[in-house]
Structures are given as structure tokens and as C-alpha cells.
Amino acid sequence: MGPPTSQISCLLTLINQAARTLESGYNKDDGVVPSLDQIEPHALDGKLSAPDTQEAIQILEGACAQLCATLARPNHTLVNKFFLTALEPSSLHVAFMFNIPDVLQETPSGMHVNEIAQRCGTEPSKLARILRLLSAKHCFREVEKDVFANNRLSVQLLSSNPLRNLGLHMTGDTTAGSTKLAETLADPEWGHSFIPAHSPWNKHTSQPLAMFDYWASNPDMRQHGERFGIGMIGWSATVEAATVVHAYPWKDLATGATVCDLGGGVGTMAIHLARAHPSLQLKLQDIPDRVVQAETVVWPTQCPEAIRENRIEFKAVDFFRESPIAGCDVYYLKNIIHVFPTAECLTILEGVRKVMKPASRVLIHEYILQTAPTGSQQFESDSIKLDVSLMVHVNGRVRTLDEYIALGEQAGLRFIKVWEFGDLSGMEFCAKENEG
């Protein structure tokens, strides 16, 4: 027996309400919901979303997917939403490798596939079929037969956009590694292991080192690490991680308060902090390659004033063998804990705990894994997708709030509260013996 009509009505109500909320957000700005054919950025594209907007998008996506899965035949949904979608990342990877968004940007009205293929050095009819698939998913548009143009989505993939670097990683390393997911789980040793080097990515590449370690130790692969570092700028913008700059009470810290961005990559979030709160003294710590990239490439172009004014210190660290810079007011860890097994997470947090002042805080900025309450329907969420992606890359995982709190307790930290930072959350801790 099918679901009661009331369930369909509830989903339709959710979809209508969410769509109206999002439409209202555009109307408040300039009264125009941008067309998918538009390639110029909309005024709202670079602004942080209001909480009701973020919630509305999650509801709209989840309710639409559930409605389609409920009303369509099961075999239709399985074939079209699961089986055939495996082609999409590989098709998008073609667009990245041949820089097709950049090529199309030269002719906004559209370019014939023969000319695109000539620029790319590939066969036109095959390229047309791939671009047609992507256009059907609303990334690019087919203006007329075999004539393609950029649109609101594909223009985000220009080589000048950090999001392209994330796309290369996800459609390359992630897609390739995921093909070995079942084989890895079936392995008698690896299937039960949480060692980072026992991941599906390792099974695919036959590399003995964990992904990030392999990139760092192999000169031929360091470009992957650099690409990933830039890609995280695009990812942070997508999940609106910069909400932390406004939602956390940085302004309440004393002038000259020190913030250690531990494992901060090239310093994406530290740059946001430097711009918004010039009274802070920032410390960026990561592996040597990322620190050098940050100090010599990223910060001189994106935040030179912080270097000029001595508001940023760059210092490499191996947080498995040494503690971070001592005595900072806030130790900020964004997307670090989810990469490692429990033992390694405890090593990192215990290292931080050793150098904290009595009033120091630890702020862990990550997704909190959302699971379905008993008896309720689970909507698809980014935390669930990232959870599996981390398993593919490094055997990592997204944790529940209770798991984060337990990690802190074991490392000598006391949980204070959860902060909402865009799609992500912030778990704030102090030293366990400090009741302040």
C-alpha cells in the first residue's frame, strides 16, 4: 500500500513554503530571481545566507527528492537517480580537463561543438554527447543543436574560481576512489580498519601512504595538495563557513588576542578573520608545503595588509609530534577532526590541551552528523555525503555531537556550547578543570 495522501500533501506544502521563502529573499534584494541562463553574478551570490534561507534550501532539496522517490516507480528512481548518475562526475571531469567553461566564456551566445573540440583537441561528436548530458543537468546549456554556452552553474567552474580545484579533486580522486568502496569493505583486514592508509583511495591507487601524506612526500603529486588547498577556498565559500567570522564573539576578545588556525591549510578562514577583525593576532599552522604556499602565494595577493601589519604568523607544525604555538586565546580547528581516527584525534587535541592558558578556548568547526530521529524520514544532507567521501579518501568520518563531546572529554576538554556557522557547526571547549 502506498503512502497516505497526507504525506504527499505535507511534502508539497514544505516545497511551496521553502520556494516562497527563497523567492522572497531574492525579492528583498532586487526583485529578480536569476535565470539559469544568466552568467553574470547575482547580488546575493557573494553574500552570507540568512538562517531561514539555509533551512529553506535544505527542505526544498530534501522534500523534492522524497516526493520524486515516493511518486515515481521504484525501478525508475533507482536507474535514473542512482545507476546513471555515476556518469555525471566523469562527464564533469572532462569539462574541467579541457577547460571548457573558459573556452565558452569567449562566446557567451554559444559556440558550436566543432570549434570547442578543435580548441580542446578532441572528437566533436563525443564531446557533444558529454556536454549534452551536463546541459540536461543544468550545467551548461545547449542553445541549439550542437551549440553550447555557459550558464549560471557552469560559469562557476572557470579556472579563476577556486571551486574548479575542488571539482577536479571530487571528480578525480573521489570518483576514482569510490569505485573501490565495496572491494575495500569486503577486504578481511581493511574492511574493519580505520587506518587512514586503508581507504578505498589507497585500494585504487595501490599507495601505502594515506592520501595527504602521499601528496606531501611525492614531489610529482604536490600539485594535488596545492590544488586541494585552493579547492578548500571554494568549498568554504559554498558551505558559507565564513559565517564563523560574524557568529562567534571574536569582538569580545581583548585587543591583540591570539587565534591559532591549526591545520588551516592556506589560511582561508584566517584571511576572513584578518579582514573582519584586525585587532586579532593570527597564527597559521599546517604542514610545511601548505604554510609556504600560504606565506608566499595566497596571503601576499589576498591579504597583504595582514603581513604588512605583522598580524599573521606562519609556522609549520606536525600536530602528531608537537603541540601548536603555546598560550593562544583560541585554537581553531576547521575540518581537521573528521579526517582522523579517534586515537589520532586525541593526539591532536591533547597537544592543544598541553599549551592552553586557563582562559583558552578550542573551537572545532565541522559538520555535525545528522541522523534521522526514530520513526522519521531521513532527508539527504551534506553531512551524510561528506561522511562517505571522507571514508573514501582517508577512512575519516563526520561525527555526531555526542562523539565530539566524548573526544573532548578524553582529551581533557569540557564542552561549552554549539554555535551555528552556516551549513557547519562550531563545538566550543575549554580546559576541563576550568569552569569559566
Characteristics of this structure?
transferase, S-adenosyl-L-methionine-dependent methyltransferase, 4 domains, 436 residues, 19 helices
Structural class: alpha/beta
Radius of gyration: 23 Å
CATH architecture of the largest domain, by name, is: 3-Layer(aba) Sandwich
Task: Catalogue the unreliable spans.
Answer: none
Shape: globular
Distinct helical segment count:
19
User: CATH homologous superfamily name of the largest domain?
Assistant: Vaccinia Virus protein VP39
Characterise this structure.
This protein is α/β, with parallel strands linked by helices. The protein folds into 4 domains: 5-40 and 49-71; 82-157, Winged helix-like DNA-binding domain superfamily/Winged helix DNA-binding domain (Arc Repressor Mutant, subunit A), CATH 1.10.10.10; 162-230, no CATH class; 236-431, 3-Layer(aba) Sandwich (Rossmann fold), CATH 3.40.50.150. The protein contains 19 helices and 10 strands. It has helices at 5-29, 51-71, 74-83, 87-97, 100-105, 113-120, 124-136, 162-178, 181-186, 200-205, 211-217, 222-238, 244-247, 268-276, 288-302, 304-308, 342-355, 382-394, 401-410, and strands at 111-112, 141-144, 147-149, 258-262, 281-285, 312-314, 330-334, 361-366, 413-421, 424-431. The strands form 2 sheets. A 7-stranded mixed sheet has the order 6-5-4-7-8-10-9, sandwiched between helices. It has a 3-stranded antiparallel sheet with strand order 1-3-2. Helix 17 links the parallel strand 7 (330-334) and strand 8. Helix 1 (5-29) runs antiparallel to helix 2. It is globular, with a radius of gyration of 23 Å. The termini are far apart. The mean pLDDT is 93.
